[in-house]
Design goal:
about 750 residues; alpha/beta; Chitobiase, domain 2; TIM Barrel; Four Helix Bundle (Hemerythrin (Met), subunit A); seven-stranded parallel β-sheet; four-stranded mixed β-sheet; about 45% helix; about 10% strand; binds 2-acetamido-2-deoxy-beta-D-glucopyranose
Length: about 750
């Protein structure tokens, strides 16, 4: 009876039912996780695509007289997207990276939207891609299965159908290297620690400083990946799996003396033992043997679930030669190795290199390097399309398939920033100009805040005209803060905020998420007006942000239960975080003017310290604010890392070191210091505040503008402090809690009085 009515519903749409029920269990399970109380009210059906387009599409309708919602779509992924379209738009609930409010629905919402008879959607591109190789370091390094389940539900409901899936790669490598005669010691000395594996996978670094990778890690990660890949497939996604890249333990020269190997570049000032990674040339027959072994091993662990393989050889690594014949041979050897392992293999490449090393990668060299694979065998991620697109200069990658990607965030930095017009109009105009554009992608280095900037691109993938930003903002916050009715003045605040920070027209100087100067090594100059990938330059009027913030605080003070909504709480903390970071910048400038203008030798040390007090107080306040939300805690990051050691304290201590090192010194002695800095409760108080206190004390002692030497201060004061901090253990000092501390509202109410 049920099936028959489904067939009739589908025939009415002129489509054939393809539905094999086993394919649908993934979507039914998703609904059971997200909306358990109404799970039996949904019926899903797979239908064949229309003749006009093979892109994904879905239709939502309700059964006449019955309390049942019917969603039919061309793929399981489009069903997930359809489900979210319905609950999000008609029920005003949402899922974000941090929370889902879908299960707060009190009743099944009525169909909404045009005509109320049905809702539908159709993608304008075949692929919606997700993840940067380094997101597996900055965001998911310590994710548990529960974290992954949430994130994959988020991804499915946002229509993502091509996620990168790097977890557990090291177990595959270990097995294959052992099969090829490498000893465990030789392999382990090559592998990097849990927080740094992406750069080992890229061949930027090798080995692990301050302890080596316990073999327990890759084994457990492989088991985690088995669940991840299975879930991805169940949710209608095509995972992009790793492959053999060519980076190998340096013992290869002893084991295979005839193999053609070169050392790749040194990277970011790392000591040579941790970089200059050995690279087996793809022209060597051994390369293909290793490729086949890696892919076969991977198929044994995860099944034959994809033909798409991620493979980057020159990400911030220079090729051995710029000869165009050589570059063509390398890519030809590489694709041939992949196709020896999987005859339908498609090579997926992050296109970052063509931008980051543009002086090497001339158009001629790019064309040569991309000429090995045939059209259809290569998929390029135009990694930074919103900031530094490369598709135009390469004539759409000379006809290869490519994806328009948003990078936006480097190292999980947290400033409020975005350019919604570029993500909407910029993408639709690229669609009109490039016939080999096959998708949109999110390729942020780390996921932190600014969620509207990501959702809008994924939604643009389902709209042939550019989304209207004002309308989008309203709908977005109705769902983000729902199912409660969101006060009109709160929506108005968000329109103002979008105009202020998410239409960033200073894109040429601040084209990504900025960071606060308090996350940098304290200095008497050089912190302000930084542009590029970690900008500190103010690109909007700070006082306008304060006005918006005050209105939002007023709204939640008038109606305090609003703060019980996790997204309202998150956003209030995030905006307050930004207000305080901006205030810190202003106070820093004031303090430096005082120090510089009044000959400091005329002031006493205590006068100098008094002048710096408001500056340091901002950090104390920021720490208190951040401590009120579980999503802004250093303790959360460290707890996740330690939990993966499953009770072994020695291993847990190493994971904690890894967790701390990545967000601070990033390297044994600060090689890319503060790159992945965070404004987190506990981190501001235990790491940044002491450094600024030492800075103020140093100035108060010196009392002489020309006495301050930034390099000396860094090496004799900050780095020794930082190195010692790496080895501390969270929770052993007074006030270091793992969970939240304090209530946000009283802090906010008190704080607005001071502005
Ligand atoms: C997907 O939709 C877009 C816009 O309607 C269209 O140009 C494109 O040809 C479609 N792609 C496929 C594979 O059908
Ligand atoms: C950590 O590594 C650095 C750099 O190699 C080294 O100087 C230091 O002694 C190491 N510390 C520990 C505790 O292993
Ligand atoms: C290396 O190449 C030389 C010369 O072609 C050959 O004699 C030797 O057997 C090869 N060694 C190995 C280990 O393949
Ligand atoms: C390549 O790197 C290895 C260490 O990984 C080193 O032993 C070797 O000397 C390097 N080769 C060259 C030519 O620099
Ligand atoms: C995967 O496909 C290969 C052929 O490409 C086949 O040899 C192998 O048995 C398959 N593995 C699994 C686990 O299905
Ligand atoms: C590229 O490979 C071909 C065929 O193996 C070879 O003849 C040619 O010398 C190679 N070119 C370069 C620059 O390595
Ligand atoms: C698309 O092409 C049109 C006309 O060829 C051109 O004016 C426009 O700048 C192009 N847009 C992009 C984003 O390249
Ligand atoms: C303070 O004076 C130092 C030394 O002259 C100068 O480098 C720095 O830019 C000044 N700082 C500010 C904020 O004006
Ligand atoms: C930063 O730039 C702004 C204008 O863009 C300028 O007013 C300010 O003086 C600059 N600050 C420094 C320290 O250079
Ligand atoms: C913890 O792990 C270390 C390193 O792998 C190992 O040597 C030690 O035996 C383990 N301790 C326990 C209690 O299992
Ligand atoms: C812990 O918090 C209390 C209350 O805020 C404060 O008085 C005390 O100084 C803090 N202790 C440390 C070690 O920071
Ligand atoms: C610093 C260093 O030793 N770099 C080496 C990396 O490897 C290449 C060989 O490919 C050498 O030329 C560099 O000197």
């Amino acid at each position: 009876m049920k099936l028959k009515s489904l067939i009739i519903a589908a025939l009415a749409l002129g489509q054939a039912v393809l539905c094999a029920n086993s394919e649908l269990h993934g979507i039914y399970k998703l609904v059971a996780r997200q909306l358990p109380q109404f799970a039996d009210k949904f019926e899903f059906a797979l239908v064949s695509p229309t003749s006009a387009s093979s892109n994904d599409s879905y239709t939502i309708s309700s059964k006449a007289g019955k309390d049942t919602v019917i969603i039919s779509g061309t793929t399981v992924n489009s069903l997930a997207r359809g489900f979210y379209h319905y609950v999000g738009q008609c029920g005003s609930v949402s899922i974000s990276w941090t929370e889902s409010t879908i299960d707060t629905l009190g009743s099944l919402p009525k169909l909404c939207g045009a005509g109320h008879g049905s809702l539908d959607g159709a993608a304008v591109v075949p692929w919606r891609y997700y993840f940067n190789t380094v997101t597996f370091g900055y965001t998911t390094a310590f994710y548990s299965w529960a974290d992954w389940e949430h994130l994959l539900d988020w991804a499915a409901m946002h229509g993502i159908n091509m996620p990168l899936a790097w977890v557990g790669y090291e177990q595959v490598l270990i097995d294959v290297f052992e099969e090829f005669g490498f000893s465990q010691a030789q392999i382990v000395s090559f592998l990097s620690g849990p927080a740094f594996q992406p750069w080992n996978r890229f061949g930027n670094i090798q080995g692990s400083w301050n302890g080596s990778l316990p073999l327990d890690w890759p084994r457990r990660q492989m088991q985690l990946q088995q669940k991840i890949v299975k879930r991805m497939v169940e949710l209608g996604m095509t995972p992009v799996l790793p492959s053999f890249t060519g980076f190998v333990p340096n013992a290869i020269t002893e084991l295979y003396p005839n193999a053609t190997v070169i050392n790749s570049s040194t990277w970011s000032g790392f000591p040579v033992i941790y970089t200059n990674v050995t690279f087996l040339e793809p022209l060597d027959p051994l390369f293909t043997k290793l490729q086949v072994a890696v892919i076969q091993r991977q198929q044994t662990y995860y099944g034959n679930v994809t033909h798409h393989y991620t493979l980057d050889q020159y990400n911030e690594n220079s090729p051995f030669s710029g000869d165009v014949g050589y570059l063509k041979n390398v890519s030809l050897g590489t694709i041939e190795s992949l196709r020896a392992a999987d005859p339908d293999a498609v090579w997926v490449m992050q296109g970052w290199l063509f931008f980051s090393d543009a002086s090497f990668w001339t158009d001629e060299r790019i064309q040569a390097y991309l000429s090995g694979p045939e059209i259809g065998q290569l998929l390029i991620l135009d990694l930074f399309s919103e900031g530094s697109p490369q598709w135009q200069r390469t004539n759409s990658y000379y006809g290869h398939d490519w994806i328009w990607c948003e990078l936006h965030d480097f190292g999980g930095n947290q400033g409020l920033e975005g350019n919604l017009p570029t993500l909407t109009k910029g993408f639709t105009s690229a669609m009109a100009n490039s016939s080999s554009l096959v998708g949109v992608g999110l390729t942020m280095e780390g996921q932190e805040g600014n969620q509207i900037v990501y959702d809008i691109l994924l939604d643009q993938a389902w709209s042939s005209s550019s989304l209207n930003i004002r309308r989008y903002t309203k709908e977005f916050f109705k769902a983000r803060y729902g199912p409660m009715t969101v006060p009109a003045d709160v929506i108005e605040c968000w329109h103002d905020l979008v105009t202020l920070v998410y239409m960033n027209n200073a894109s040429s100087v601040v084209n990504v998420v900025p960071k606060s100067i308090y996350e940098l090594a304290p200095n008497i100059n050089g912190l302000l007006n930084i542009t590029g990938h970690h900008p500190t330059k103010a690109f909007y009027d700070f006082s306008s942000l304060v006005d918006i913030w005050k209105k939002l605080v007023g709204a939640v003070a008038a109606s305090p239960t609003m703060l019980q909504h996790p997204h309202v709480h998150y956003d209030l903390v995030d905006i307050t975080r930004q207000v305080l970071a901006n205030q810190f910048l202003d106070l820093y400038v004031d303090f430096m003017h005082f120090y510089n203008a009044t000959n400091p030798s005329a002031s006493t040390s205590s006068e100098i310290i008094d002048h710096a007090r408001p500056l340091l107080d901002v950090l104390r306040t920021a720490d208190r604010v951040l401590y009120t939300d579980v999503n802004f805690l250093l303790g959360s990051w460290i707890a996740r890392a330690r939990a993966l050691a499953d009770g072994n304290d020695t291993i847990a201590d190493y994971y904690e070191f890894e967790a701390r090192n990545q967000i601070t010194l990033w390297g044994p002695t600060g090689q890319i210091n503060n790159y992945a800095s965070k404004q987190w409760g506990g981190l501001v108080g235990s790491y940044y505040l002491p450094q600024w206190e030492m800075f103020v004390e140093t100035l108060a002692v010196q009392r002489n503008v020309s006495a301050f030497n930034p390099a000396t201060f860094l090496h004799t004061v900050l780095l020794p402090f930082g190195i010692q901090w790496q080895w501390e253990k969270w929770g052993q000092t007074e006030n270091q809690t793992w969970g939240v501390q304090g209530d946000l509202l009283p802090i906010l109410v008190e704080l607005v009085q001071t502005f």
